[in-house]
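Ticket 4471: requesting a sanity check on a complex prediction with FE-MO-S cluster. Repro inputs:
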Amino acid sequence: MSVARQYPAPSEVKEELLKKYPTKVAKKRSKSIVLNDPDQPKEIQANIRTVPGIITQRGCCYAGCKGVVLGPTRDILNIVHGPIGCSYYAWLTRRNQTKPETAEEANYVPYCFSTDMQEDHVVFGGEKKLTKAIEEAYEIFKPKAIAIHSTCPVGLIGDDVHAVARAMTAKLEDCNVFGFSCEGYKGVSQSAGHHIANNGLFKHVVGKDNTVREGKFRINLLGEYNIGGDSFELERLFEECGITLVSTYSGNSTYLDLMNSHMVDLNLVMCHRSINYIGEMMETKYGVPWLKVNFIGAESTAKSLRKMAEYFGDEELKAKVEEVCERELAKTTAALAASKPKTEGKLAMLFVGGSRAHHYQELFKELGMKTIAAGYEFAHRDDYEGREIIPNIKIDADSKNIEELKIKPDEELYKPRKTAEEIEALKAKGVELGEYKGMMPDMAEHTFVIDDISQYESEKLIEIYKPDVFCAGVKEKYVIQKMGIPLKQLHSYDYGGPYAGFEGAINFYKDIERMVSSRIWKLIDAPWEKAKKEQPELTATYVA
Ligand code: CFM
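Returned structure tokens:
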């Protein structure tokens, strides 16, 4: 028999989270900790600098550019200009998979290319070393494209990676070399790196191949990075539905696909945060509209496929999509029936990145679990509150450092894919183009939405709510597990996945069922609790 759990009033919870902070910090953090009420318009503070001294989950600008957006494309050779640590610690850690079609096809994903900047390069400049590294990489691999990623010292000493890139493109003739000023300190998180990567790809790659590919329904999938094989499952579904996937940004993608990506008729957007810039720019320059989708959760996957079919308006396609959805939903429903009795009524907390803390709530809903608190590490207000608030977002100095490209319609290639009337008709049918409503309206009343949560706040929330599963990343994983709470990594999926699409939903049901059913967690005594009892002389306290 389960006993209904009792919790303090939400206002008391918020007070508890803030109580130990110095007044100024508490005041600042208070604006990022919001008690959600889907019927009340709410404002959350997001995309601002983390308070120094707070243990944040965030990463850096270089991580967002090289690691997130550029990294998954297998045949762009990514050279990191900087000290070796920036490369070494980012080497193969994101689980973005790729599958070359032939054994001869280039795949640089397993490699780690770095200029290995030393002290004398920091003092005397590193451009010569960078030029040499490009020459060497070209000699050995003959890649079609080389991307240069700047780490912190490059910006501090003023190496001009763009000048080096231009010179090398001219010299090598058959290799497109382009640079990114994605120094780690730019902006306030990896979000700045996404924007810089989007700009660079749009300037140097998109639009270079105007071939019209075969296929009646051509799309791109934006903001899907093939973590744990997610893109493979989605590719399977598109193929079965008769959809031509020209490119994915950037899971399992190739340079050539990205060059041709502006020739499609629709962009589907998975992760709005990391790629909305390319969606917007492609629409302005070429007239390709974008549609926000979510392929996390069986029902959301079916809904997203149906919306896509509605967009094309083709009866045969709609019938095919219906057939695929019905067949797959029968399988997910059966899997859910097996897992749900063990997951129903359990509590989840999700603190991840800039889109998954929203998307994964769908899977937990299917499992009958409640998301009691959720938040992003580095999202912007629109990812929480919806795109309509974009004009009200205050642009601060940190965001002003990131270039906004001025895009105009292409004189030859701009062609709106739908008329204004067609767009309105689609909207009436629930297919709203260029729109994202964000996380908050989808969350229940009396739940918490917290931006850039700190380790301290996470621990407090866990003490109060004792969730059945906490979703975050590897930096949080082991401390939280030592507290006796299972942690599911929603960045790397631990060793699991895929979790996208129908097959992915089944994998997730099973993994979560196993995690929340295990009794081992209750037996854990956190080492610091044990130390308090057994060796009090080893425990430390904070002195203000
Ligand atoms: Fe988008 Fe991502 Fe995410 Fe992201 Fe990321 Fe990631 Fe993520 Mo880790 S692009 S915002 S910068 S969905 S690497 S595949 S899991 S934080 S929620």
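Notes from triage: Residues 64, 68, 94, 190, 223, 225, 227, 271, 273-274, 352-356, 491 surround FE-MO-S cluster (CB under 6 Å). Leaving this open until the requester confirms.
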